[in-house]
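Minutes, project check-in

Agenda point 3 was the complex the collaborators sent over. CS summarized: two entities, 238 residues total, and the question is how they sit relative to each other. Sequences were read into the notes so everyone works from the same version.
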Amino acid sequence: MTIEFVYFAWVRERIGIGGETLDVPAGLATVTDLLDWLATRSPGHAAALADRGAIRVAVDQDFVMPDAPLGTPAEIAIFPPVTGG
Amino acid sequence: MIAARVQAAAFDMAAETARLTGGRSDIGAVVTFTGHVRADDGLTALLIEHYPAMTQRQMMAIAAEAWGRWPLLGGSIVHRHGRLLPGEAIVLVAIASAHRGAAFAAAEFLMDWLKTRAPFWKQEERGDRLHWVAAKATDDAAAARWTAGGGTT
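CS then shared the predicted structure for the full assembly.
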C-alpha cells in the first residue's frame, strides 16, 4: 500500500523533509503500528516519533486516535499538537 | 453561513463587519475578536505554518458546528499564515446574530475550537533563535468545556 506522508512543525524538522511517498508493508493494523514501522526508517524518524504523547496524527485530513484502525488511507499527516488562533 | 479562509495578507476588520451587516436589518449584534502578535520576551516575529489540505476543511467543520449550535445570521473566520510582526493581527472571528448572547458565545466557541482543532503551528522568532510554541493545557480545557465528553484532540 502506497501512502503519502506529510510532516509539519518540529516533526518535519526532525525527520528532515516535509513529506514522502512510502510503500507501507501489509499487516499494519492500527495507526500506532504504522508509526512504529515509520520510526524504524531513520534516526530522524525515530527522534520525531519517540514521544507519542507529543504528536498528533491525521488520516486523510481528519484527526485520529493512535488505536484507530489504519484502513487504506491516501494521506497521513504527523505533527505536534496544534497552536493556532 | 460562516465564511472561513486562510491567507498571508492582513485583513480589514471593518470591511469584514460591513460585509456581514450590509443591506441587512435583522442583525442586532456583531461580536468581533482579533488575536494579535505580542512582543513577549523580545519576540521579533511569529511564524505560522499550516496544513493547507486540512486547514480549510477543519475551519469549515468548526464553522458548521457553531452554525448548528446558535441562531446566527452570518460570520467570518480569517486566519493568517506566514511571518507576522508584533502588533499584527493573526486571527479574526466576526459573528452576527439577532441578539448578543448567541454572538458572544459563538465567537468564544469558535476561538476555543480553532486553537485546538485547526492545524496551525506557531514558531517564535527572537533574532536568530526559533522556538516552536507548545500547546497549552488551558486551551484544551477551554475547548473541552463546549463538549460534554471532553476534547477529542
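Noted in discussion: The longest helix of chain A spans residues 31-39.
Follow-up: revisit at the next meeting once the mutant set is ready.
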